[in-house]
Backbone:
């Protein structure tokens, strides 16, 4: 897919609320460095879109931050926190890096897979849960761990996973 034109009307790109939130991030960087807010802008737009990005949304971020679209695609495809297809209402990110692996992330994965009936990269039929393998969430001291939304759950056992999932709406 090739873009044919750039949108110059920045107000047409996003809602006033989204623009205000992105602008708060842009203001944190020196003038002329608004591309530094790319990661935050992608997160904001992803959240507003129900948890995933589209090519159109990445193009809009590029236009808003005056960046080449390819630079935005590079960021959005490099970092694992950006999704490029719909996810479940509760996105479960299970860390499988060395500390979590040594402390049993494989058994946590098997428990999640058995309970939810999905593997990594899949969404439950009801759209309630998606399961994602992540390289590292930086919480090695609490391994094995997972992230759901913005919350970290550490020192997981199958019983604790059940309690956590049962507590979600």
Residues:
């Amino acid at each position: 897919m090739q873009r044919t034109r750039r949108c110059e009307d920045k107000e047409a790109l996003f809602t006033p609320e989204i623009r205000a939130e992105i602008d708060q991030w842009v203001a944190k960087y020196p003038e002329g460095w608004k591309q530094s807010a790319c990661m935050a802008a992608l997160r904001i737009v992803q959240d507003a879109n129900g948890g995933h990005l589209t090519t159109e949304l990445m193009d809009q971020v590029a236009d808003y931050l005056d960046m080449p679209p390819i630079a935005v695609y590079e960021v959005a495809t490099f970092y694992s926190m950006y999704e490029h297809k719909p996810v479940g209402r509760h996105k479960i990110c299970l860390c499988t890096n060395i500390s979590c692996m040594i402390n049993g992330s494989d058994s946590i994965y098997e428990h999640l897979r058995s309970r939810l009936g999905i593997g990594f990269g899949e969404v439950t039929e009801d759209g309630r849960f998606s399961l994602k393998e992540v390289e590292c969430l930086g919480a090695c001291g609490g391994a094995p761990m997972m992230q759901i939304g913005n919350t970290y759950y550490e020192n997981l056992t199958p019983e604790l996973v059940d309690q956590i999932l049962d507590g979600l709406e």
Summary: The CA atoms of residues 15 and 48 lie 10 Å apart. Helices lie at 16-26, 38-48, 55-64, 69-78, 98-102, 105-116, 158-166. Residues 105-116 form the longest helix (12 residues). The chain has seven helices and five strands.
